[in-house]
Amino acid sequence: MKKRLAGLIFEKAFKYSEKPAFKLVSGRMSCYYFNCKTVTLHPEGMYLIGSIIYEMIRDMDAKGIGGLTLGADPIAGAVAYTSYLKGSPVEAFIVRKKTKSHGTMQCIEGNVREGDRVVIVDDVITTGKSTIEAISRSRDAGLEIAGVIALVDRQEGGKENIEALGLDVESVVTRDDVMKLYHSVA
């Protein structure tokens, strides 16, 4: 399953240029880019992501899985759906970029509460900034972070930045995995 998911990421989400052509969130230019929504919103991608990440978290005793909207949302949904089918439901939740200014004015949406143990997910980790933001907001809401999972680790220091917070970080696919695929067909 992991091999097929890496192939889907390579086919649908990965872009490469010999010269830096892709502007990242940080403003830095890069030779490669991952648009993981093309995989996280794809039917087979959802199935693979839900199955793989469910297996990664099933022994973590987590009540929920989520992260900063929008990258984490389809991942959390796929894992929650898979967990229900496996008879061990894990709640999906969303960490808003801005707290709602109306209604209940929540930063976290979903069925997780203070004291719940959760896993933070992100589609791509580069510097780790948005993942760290999700961690911080989740901790502020009283959630206990069981671990962090990235669909793709660009291997540019983000994993280490998150680990510096005392958390375990795992990735499903790395930049090196995708570059091996790139070089095998180039």
The helix content, as a percent range, equals 25-40%
SSE ordering: HEEEEHHEHEEEHEHEH
Uncertain stretches: none
Number of helices: 7
Q: What is the total tally of β strands?
A: 10
The average pLDDT is 95
Rg computed from alpha carbons, rounded to a whole number of angstroms: 16 Å
Give the class from helix and strand content and strand pairing.
Answer: alpha/beta
Strand content: 25-35%
Question: What is the CA–CA distance across the termini?
Answer: 23 Å
Largest sheet strand order? 7-6-5-8-9-10
Classified by CATH, the class is Alpha Beta
CATH topology description: Rossmann fold
Estimate nothing, just give the exact number of structural domains: 1
Globally, the shape reads: globular
Return the CATH architecture.
3-Layer(aba) Sandwich
> Multimeric state of these chains?
single chain
Features:
7 helices; 186 residues; six-stranded mixed sheet; alpha/beta; single chain
Report on the architecture of this protein.
There is one protein chain. The chain is of the alpha/beta class and 186 residues long. The chain has one domain: Rossmann fold, CATH 3.40.50.2020. Helices cover 39% and strands 26% of the residues. The protein contains seven helices and ten strands. The strands form three sheets. It has a six-stranded mixed beta sheet with strand order 7-6-5-8-9-10, with helices on both faces. A two-stranded antiparallel sheet has the order 1-4. The radius of gyration is 16 Å and the shape is globular.
Summarize the topology.
Blueprint: H1 2-13, E1 14-16, E2 22-23, E3 29-30, E4 32-34, H2 37-40, H3 43-57, E5 64-68, H4 73-85, E6 91-95, E7 108-110, E8 117-125, H5 129-140, E9 144-153, H6 158-163, E10 169-174, H7 175-185
Parallel strand pairs: 5-6, 5-8, 8-9, 9-10
Antiparallel strand pairs: 1-4, 2-3, 6-7
Helix pairs in contact: 1-3, 1-7, 3-4
